[in-house]
Specification:
10 helices; alpha/beta; five-stranded mixed beta sheet; Trna Endonuclease, Chain: A, domain 1
Length: about 350
């Protein structure tokens, strides 16, 4: 193990001092000896001071080393925790990235679906079916119902007269709507709006001609747009089309407005069922009144029987009191003693009052 250089220096200084002191002690000059003694003392003090300083320095170095070790340990722990957190966040980011990739794939699939007219029509029909099934019971609707004219409607709401059965047909004029949004100049915008108006007008006319059948359906029908954006564009910039559809008895609805319409229809159907069952309720109420009348009569009979029982108990109590009183009278008569003994027995004449009481 290597020695500390400062410690070696202190030992060397002390050794030199000891040697000088020994030499001086053997010298005959007393003054020189005194100076050397003083020098030796200074050297000893210097050696002690050097040792004390070295000890203090070692202690400070040890403390500093401990603090550095603690700081390094703390830093290593924090770095480990940070790495752990970073790994977790990277895992979350990786999962989110996978979800985004999956969502992108689905968006591409949805775009492919919407780019095809038949697929887009099926998409609108599926959305329509989900909304109707959510609100109404199966007895109140039929999908792909065939009318007497041979036309097949996407959904037929079975409502009582009036208004009668209402047909709903799903339409999705997506190309014309996209053309409006993708217009680069005013000319393209005018053309796109004209195409959009033409598409909507053709759909409205087809629904009015196919799905409004006098005597079989109501005098109106619904056109379902499965896009709130298309519905908003129609009502914002094509109010004339909405009014024209209303004159043709075709009401244009979006998913939100269709939900509100179906909810209103459900309330109407509930009210109709209540009216249909009104005569049953009246019959039951009449039967309940008859049952109450019979119950009242039986309660009256029971009350009369109860009153008669009370009267019988009262009369029995009266007879019991009379019997107890007579028994007491008999007992008092049998226990009476004569005031003086008679000299000779004489016949006892019954007291009329006592005889009457006994009788």
């Amino acid at each position: 193990m290597a020695l500390d250089p400062s410690l070696v220096l202190a030992i060397a200084i002390l050794a030199v001092g000891i040697v000088i002191w020994l030499v001086v002690r053997n010298s005959p000059d007393a003054g020189e000896t005194a100076r050397l003694d003083q020098l030796f003392g200074q050297i000893q003090a210097l050696a002690h001071a050097q040792a004390s300083t070295q000890a203090a320095i070692d202690q400070r170095l040890q403390q500093m080393g401990d603090r550095v070790h603690d700081r390094l340990s703390e830093s290593a722990s924090q770095a480990g925790q940070s790495l752990t957190d970073l790994k977790e966040r990277l895992a979350v980011i990786d999962a989110a990235q996978k979800n985004i990739a999956d969502l992108s794939t689905r968006m591409v699939s949805l775009q492919d679906i919407l780019s095809n007219k038949q697929s887009r029509g099926a998409f609108g029909e599926v959305q329509l079916m989900d909304l109707v099934r959510t609100v109404l019971s199966p007895a109140n609707f039929e999908f792909q119902a065939t009318l007497s004219t041979g036309k097949r409607v996407d959904c037929l709401l079975k409502l009582p007269n009036p208004p009668g059965a209402i047909g709903i047909d799903a339409k999705f004029p997506l190309e014309a709507f996209r053309a409006i949004n993708d217009s680069k100049d005013d000319a393209a915008l005018v053309t796109a709006r004209r195409d959009f108006s033409t598409a909507i007008r053709l759909h409205v006319r087809a629904i009015s001609e196919k799905y409004i059948v006098p005597g079989e359906t109501a005098d109106s029908a619904l056109m379902f747009l499965p896009s709130e954006a298309v519905y908003a564009e129609l009502h914002t910039n094509f109010g004339n089309l909405v009014e024209e559809a209303g004159r043709m008895r075709v009401w244009i609805v979006s998913p939100t407005t269709l939900m509100a319409t179906l909810t209103t229809m459900r309330a109407v159907l509930k009210d109709v069922r209540m009216r249909e069952q009104a005569h049953v309720i009246q019959t039951k109420v009449g039967e309940l009144m008859k049952d109450l009348e019979r119950l009242d009569k039986r309660v009256g009979h029971l009350q009369s029987h109860f009153d008669q029982a009370v009267e019988d108990v009262r009369q029995i109590r009266v007879s019991t009191d009379k019997a107890m009183k007579k028994s007491a009278d008999i007992e008092s008569v049998g226990l009476e003693e004569p005031s003086a003994a008679p000299a000779a027995p004489s016949p006892v004449i019954p007291d009329d009052g006592l005889t009457q009481r006994l009788n």
